[in-house]
Design a protein that fits this description.
The protein has 374 residues and is of the alpha+beta class. It is elongated.
Length: 374
């Protein structure tokens, strides 16, 4: 069984993670990840130097790599190394490797606690005498804190129990690793436009309309349309004609587009927003000298600070799309600003209203260029 100090460390870390449920979700979860890891090794008091003295605790270097199999479960390999000295020329080293099953109930949240159980192997290498190899059982608890779609921080406490030469029933060596790492996520469906447009509905009801846009699923080429969105016969967002947008720009010096759609708590553009974005790009590029401020807004769900960060990422996402799609833009022409949940156009009292508030506006900063056109 793990040493009592192990349970204290694990219980303390687990208790600190119980508040994760109130944390709002963020970006799409990457299915694969690696995490370089550094920490501190607390060696079991019964692990001894050749002199008979307990091995002193020391720095730990390691790594983790894993893959998510379902919303709750994943697999992970873990490994690391710690070295310490008994005397000036007496180096002792300890290393371990294991395969683990990971349970993480909130992968799409900013804070995702996890627990893992696995089995593996460890080796204690002595300056004098033979090495000690042992099968191991590992238990770990921790949390991954998401920084953005790719990077995150990992906190972890791990107990490594080594099998005794006399069998598992006699096992009592428990080494504990506590540390942190940088998680790097990767993989996924590639091009989001292709991945999301190739949805195949398998339903026994040919008249089912899952998103309630008035177009049945078997004919809907733009699934999961937000409530209240006006769509065409194929279920895709109806985009105002370019001449209508051009007149709005000349009259007001801005374009307000609520059809630049984002899913709740996401910063990636939805494929059904591309048509609206392209119409905006066609209008704005008619005046090569325009300087445009891209203002992004969210609905009221989540904290104010989080919504400010989310709207910043959304504004940057729109800016990057326009620069990529319309290379005639100079990057200095487009700036991004975030307003979070401020200045809602309608009260955040329904799903349709909140969709309208998750909008993007394009403000012309040098309106004198437009005046020359009038």
């Amino acid at each position: 069984m793990p040493h009592p100090r192990t349970w204290i460390a694990i219980a303390t870390l687990a208790g600190a993670l119980l508040a994760h449920g109130a944390t709002p979700a963020v970006a799409e979860v990457k299915p694969l990840y690696v995490a370089p890891f550094i920490g501190w090794t607390f060696f079991d008091n019964d692990r001894l130097f050749q002199t008979g003295e307990p091995i002193s605790n020391d720095v730990y270097f390691g790594g983790r790599a894993g893959a998510r199999m379902t919303d709750l479960l994943g697999i992970e390999i873990a490994g690391g190394y710690a070295g310490t000295k008994d005397c000036a020329s007496c180096t002792e080293s300890w290393l371990h490797f294991s395969g683990n099953l990971v349970l993480s109930p909130a992968p799409a949240h900013i804070l995702d606690p996890f627990v893992s159980v696995g089995a593996g192997w460890s080796r204690s290498k002595h300056t004098v005498g033979s090495d000690d190899d042992a099968a191991t059982v590992e238990i770990a608890v921790g949390a991954r804190m998401r920084l953005n779609e790719t990077f995150g921080l990992r906190l972890e406490a791990r107990n490594v129990m080594a099998r005794s030469h006399d069998g598992w029933s006699k096992s009592h060596i428990n080494d504990v690793v506590v540390g942190a790492g940088l998680t790097i996520g990767f993989g996924g469906n590639g091009d989001p436009e292709v991945a999301r447009s190739e949805v195949i509905y398998e339903t026994a009801d040919p008249d089912m309309d899952s998103d309630g846009d008035g177009v049945v699923d078997r004919l809907d080429r733009c699934p999961n349309t937000p409530p209240g969105t006006k769509v065409d016969r194929q279920g895709c967002t109806i985009v105002p004609p370019v001449d209508v947008l051009e007149r709005e720009l000349l009259d007001t010096g801005r374009l307000a587009i609520s059809d630049v759609n984002f899913d709740y708590d996401k910063s990636e553009l939805r494929p059904d927003a591309y048509a609206a974005m392209d119409s905006v790009g066609k209008v704005l590029t008619k005046w090569p000298g325009l300087r445009i401020q891209i203002d992004a807004y969210t609905d009221s769900r989540g904290t104010e600070a989080y919504n400010m960060d989310l709207s910043h990422r959304r504004a940057e996402s729109v800016r990057e799309y326009l620069l990529r799609r319309y290379p005639q833009f100079n990057p200095t022409q487009l700036t991004a600003r975030n307003y979070g949940e401020n200045d809602p156009v309608v009260p955040n009292t329904s799903a349709a209203n909140m969709q309208l508030n998750r909008r993007v506006e394009f403000l012309v900063l040098n309106k004198e260029i437009l005046e020359q056109r009038k």
